[in-house]
Amino acid sequence: MKRTCMLSLLGIAGFLTSVSAQVRTEFLLEKGWKFTREDNPESVQPAFDDSQWQSVTVPHDWAIYGPFSSQNDKQHVAISQDGQKEAMEHAGRTGGLPFVGVGWYRTTLDIPQFTSGKKAFILFDGAMSHAQVYINGKKVGYWPYGYNSFWFDITPYIQAGQSNTLAVRLENMPESSRWYPGAGLYRNVHVVVTEDAYIPIWGTYITTPQVNDKFARVRVETKVNLPEQADPSQYRIKTILCKPDGSRLPEKMQPLTDIVYNKGVMVQEFIVEDPELWSPEHPTLYTAVSNIYKGEDQLKDEYTTRFGIRSIEIIPNKGFFLNGQRTVFKGVCNHHDLGPLGAAVNDAAIRRQIRMLKDMGCNAIRTSHNMPAPELVRACDEMGIMLMAESFDEWDKAKCANGYHTVFDEWAEKDLTNLIHHYRNNPSVVMWCIGNEVPTQWDEGGCKTARFLQDICHREDPTRPVTQGMDAPDAVVNNNFAAVMDVPGFNYRPFRYQTNYAKLPQQVILGSETASTVSSRGVYKFPVERKAMAVYDDHQSSSYDVEHCSWSNLPEDDFIQHEDLPYCMGEFVWTGFDYLGEPTPYYTNWPSHSSLFGIIDLAGIPKDRYYLYRSHWNKDEKTLHILPHWNWEGREGEITPVFVYTNYPSAELFINGKSQGKRTKDLSVEIDSSYTEAAQKSFERQKRYRLMWMDTKYEPGTVKVVAYDENGKAVDEAEIHTAGKPHHIVLTADRNQLQADGKDLSFINVKIVDKDGNFCPNETRQIKFKVKGAGTFRAVANGNSVSLESFQEPQMKLFSGQLTAIVQSAEEAGTITFEASAPGVKSAKLTLKAE
Ligand code: GAL
């Protein structure tokens, strides 16, 4: 019989709930927490009566329940990065939600597996923020940075065979963030119990120093902690590698004799023949199972690490190479919040985001501006997305009065080390990013702090390049700040790429942050003109994708660089998804409280821009998308331009059967001549990537586009129609089959159409929801950055005709019925299954 790794795969260091092997137990603390916003120091005491506190399940974001208010974390500041000279009021900068202040969590820790002589650990994937952890009234530890994962050895604090009290105090300062950070135990909390000889948390480090088609050399470093006075030669390690199909490769068993000479670390090397290489297209994963034995056969620990076999390389003048192939980053920056779910981590929500991004052709995410959740990293490993894992938005100098600079000196090294130890086995992580637009970039000598941080990355993981996002292109070249980095990452100002390339030693340029184009889904402004920092009475931005910030640009201003300059490594667009906070350009204009930068809105509904990126990035699927919508009552006879986002080279447009002419992408447009004021005004660069009919006039009816291939043959067509009277609701779920685990989510798109099924793009009707059966209503969002409606009430107004309702499975299998109704239109029902 073929020996497989299936058993071990179950206990993967991925911390599945309640997985217990004989020698190592790992479980999550999800249910049974008590929570309060009252700050009472007595809360640490085991005898304290918390019965009046709220019962919650972790992950939990206390602030996402609202209510919204302009008074929540109102900041009176000048955002110097945005060019503001004088302080002004920023009401929605951090999302207008009540995250500032103190919150306490308490739960009972029952750990029957913990007996005398064993070890116990607590691991927080992230706690927002300034976590103080107590067990049985005693302080276990403190970790200030809310985004990082951290763990403590709790062996001395817990009593075997008894209930123990875990209490966590969190505190978020005002003016500590530039976006919505979330609040509370918003990521998972794990308990790990081991024997006295064990592999510590994040104790393995697997690298692949040589990779080619025929073989890969795999190096496994395993840290082993033995009891004091133990003789290492009495212990052995057996490491088994498992292939993606679960079959085993030859194992290695060796005594631990030498670890005393190597800081407790055992090094083993393997040759894997015909390796299956990890890439975004083929995200294949191997597993290493490490067993520690005492004497001949007393199993002491079993620890599982997932890894990938892949090579990464930066080649001067050529860019980034994955497995020997030039790979251009088609990336997005994302903040960690999940829209209406807030910061509370959820696997289904993350995987949905990744599915959408991959369909767009995206191959990379930058976890701006902080450590990602393990769920995101795991999903990227499995689904095939490269990650640029970031640590800080601030170093030693302030962007926000109470930001990370207040703890930088004491914590930066510890924070960076934890990030790297946590994720250095994950093949999706291809680069570390040590900072974002840190004010230190302006300083003479700031390069020393950059080098200090980069050196930590090199020390803890010499296999990955290190970058940071810099937005002062001249200063950082003049003061060596950019020159010390493995990869110079520039935020915006692509017009400086060529000059900086000429001066810098690395001979590559990364677009670490690009575009910051702003748009509101389904909202179009006339006349269609390129504008910086345009503001309107409705607090929205135009979905013609022609508006940006004063420091930023349109998507094509980046496309052209990364296509035409061989040393450009690709880009990370600001942002993939809209996020809570930073409603730029509506800084002072409450109720604006969420971003307009997203390619996809806060409800997870694609904006038009999604199809522009898809047409450029996704070469495998055809894109043929028409904008704007065609319901312009009152604009009859007025100029209403039509854009088509497509990867076909040309197309002809018809309005009510009348040809409006044929357009072909103008591939002769080049970088240098296409950024003058006049060229920007006449959309020169856009002509290379979009098809535009600038003079079309609105008349109700049908807009049809016929696409032609390279040979001029008509090969595809699409059309949109002026919708008639709103008639019925249409529901579409992203997934109809859920896991009955009490956590899985279905995202249901809700829209209104006319009697013939034509989408009604101007509908703002309020929709009400009912969920029955084996699930509950979880949240709702419509992507409108000025809506102050609650994310948790089962009702919301449509925004530009659509919204997204989220249904959560229960723990029992069964059917879930979701019903949506609104006055004046036929309601709709949808059935989901939970198994
Ligand atoms: C950048 C910054 C981002 C975000 C963005 C908006 O300067 O790195 O965090 O603020 O601007 O355009």
Automatic annotation (TrEMBL):
Glycoside hydrolase family 2 immunoglobulin-like beta-sandwich domain segment(s): 206-310
Limits of the Glycoside hydrolase family 2 catalytic domain: 317-525
Superkingdom of origin: Bacteria
Sorted UniProt keywords: Glycosidase, Hydrolase, Signal
Domain DUF4982 as annotated: residue spans: 637-715
Hydrolase recorded as keyword: yes
One Pfam family cited in the UniProt record for this chain: DUF4982
UniProt record similarity statement: Belongs to the glycosyl hydrolase 2 family.
Protein name: Beta-galactosidase GalB
Source species: Parabacteroides absconsus
